[in-house]
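Reopening this ticket.

The earlier resolution said the output was attached, but the attachment link was broken on my side. Pasting everything inline this time so it's all in one place.
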Amino acid sequence: MAFTAPGYALQRPVDPVAVCVVSPRVEAVEEGDAAGVVPTPSPQLVVVEPLLELRIERRGRPVWRQLAAAGEALPVPLAWPLEPITPGEVVLLRLRPEQAPEGAFAHVHLVGASAERMASTAALIRSLAQSSLAWLAAIEAALEAEDVPLAWTLLFAPQLPDAAALTALRAEVVRRGCGD
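Inline output:
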């Protein structure tokens, strides 16, 4: 996903900078914008590129902002820092990676899934408990059903057990990023 700063007639356009959002699962909708339906009200944010700034807007208003300390990047994964996303709610994430100039952001629109989908995702997570085999099977089942948003929600859930196979899968998904 690429983005450019707002353009003015006398301002030189800024070259697009790539930002790869791994989780929650989003798809590019136009240059600089991506969108995705989130099956959980508190998604984990996983971005491949180091981020210097993250802003969150609700109903067109800024509600949260975090800047990285000088010489550092924001921590990843980043837990959802606000009240949960409600079903049907659209939340805008504005992401500025290291290479981006001040004021230039990638835009990611997250849309809360239906109440039923959010409830079924929460129930699934509860049912998996601390069984790494159950988590792995649920992730594989979601992928087989072509439900990548659910698979990545499970894979990056804070409740995911600490197991070598799951850690390796997480690392592989991040390594592949937005490629294949």
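Reporter confirms the inline version is readable. Strands lie at 21-23, 27-30, 33-38, 46-47, 51-58, 61-67, 90-97, 106-112. Confidence is low (pLDDT under 50) at residues 1-13.
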